[in-house]
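Format is sequence with structure; example below:
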Amino acid sequence: QVQLVESGGGSVQAGGSLRLSCAVSGRTFRSMGWFRQAPGKEREFVAAISWSGGSRSYVDSVKGRFTISRDNAKNTVYLQMNSLKSEDTAVYYCAVGVAGSWDYWGQGTQVTVSS
């Protein structure tokens, strides 16, 4: 059974940093990623990383501020978030997949950035 457990969310002032973690159990996945959903908005893609880490992608609004990484030995994906802005406030979800689709999702962790 595949399970994704996120941690690291919380409240921070604008300009601050947070690091999200998502530990995956049950099996390994080629792709790991992060999504977010702000109040009243649809869920949006934030970042993704390939198995080797050689391919990473980001939504334009976080480029230069967020960094996705993974530790395959721990089957864990991370999202380092720096220079946080109020518009980054959302519930953040990790997701994993194999071939072009996101097959499993975490329960979400709240990130609140106050200005």
